[in-house]
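CO-FOLDING WORKSHEET

Operator: S.A.
Ligand of interest: nicotinamide-adenine-dinucleotide
Run index: 255
Mode: holo prediction, single chain
Checklist:
[x] sequence pasted
[x] SMILES validated
[ ] output reviewed
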Amino acid sequence: MEETMRLENKTVIVTGAGSGLGKAVAVAAAKEGAAVVLADINEDAMNKTAQEIRENGQKALCSQVNVCSQESIGQMLTKAVDTFGQVDALVNCAGIFSSIPFLELTEEDWDRMLDINLKGSFLCSQAFIRQLLNQKTGGSLVFLSSISGYIGFTKSAHYCASKGAVRQLSKAIALEFGPSGIRSNVVAPGTIATPMNDWIIKDPKMHAQSVSSIPMGRFGTSQEIASAILFLISDEAAYCTGAELLVDGGQITHC
Ligand SMILES: NC(=O)c1ccc[n+]([C@@H]2O[C@H](COP(=O)([O-])OP(=O)(O)OC[C@H]3O[C@@H](n4cnc5c(N)ncnc54)[C@H](O)[C@@H]3O)[C@@H](O)[C@H]2O)c1
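OUTPUT RECEIVED:
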């Protein structure tokens, strides 16, 4: 019997698909049969992800998007629908991190963090949900929170605030659009080996210190986060909405 792929006939939009978690999700979703729409501000990086997907014989469309710009999000959605007919899932992976002591945080630092990590997820989700309602289909959204959305970390108040807020954004969407067959869930990674954490990985002392706080004794991989996301956007999670999946090697189990 021929094995069916979990995301066959689905179109999945992945923001931040040029790097790290977004890239891993895009590649994994394509392997599961999805047509993938890559949306990243970094065109070169996004094109490399697309090339990898196409070399595997799978479908990828690139659209340069700044998640803070409604105009670029609208253009991406139009391109996606024109190419693939409809959209089915949105994975909000675009994001930034910076480590800044609280008293040194400027208003610009705060705005940039909240604009990309929170407002960007809001703008993409609103445009995506409008399209789902036009299509008269259900669909599914995944938001990237973090263990920083559950516990505090020093020198990252702005990041923690953005990741806590994203959890609530997802829950509110789950409530408002459950009746329309639209599911909204959160994945909260612990510390994952992506370019975002190169500054820790490249500092042996900091790396060892960081790993010592993780019961599983290592950083997670992008593929491990992609697996959790794929589950949530697939029909296997048809009854999951408003849920939050911590994928952190046990890092915050003591909290
Ligand atoms: N890596 C981790 O340990 C970790 C842990 C918890 C949560 N997260 C979250 O997961 C998400 C992805 O993180 P990552 O590790 O893959 O980071 P990354 O830096 O490897 O990739 C982020 C991607 O987002 C893109 N991007 C940044 N600003 C953008 C914008 N304005 N518009 C469109 N694209 C933009 C970048 O170009 C990049 O390709 C982030 O929201 C991050 O906060 C990561």
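REVIEW:
The chain has one domain: 11-247.
Residues 15-16, 18-22, 40-42, 45, 65-68, 93-97, 116-117, 120, 144, 146, 189, 191-192, 194-197 surround nicotinamide-adenine-dinucleotide (CB under 6 Å).
[x] output reviewed
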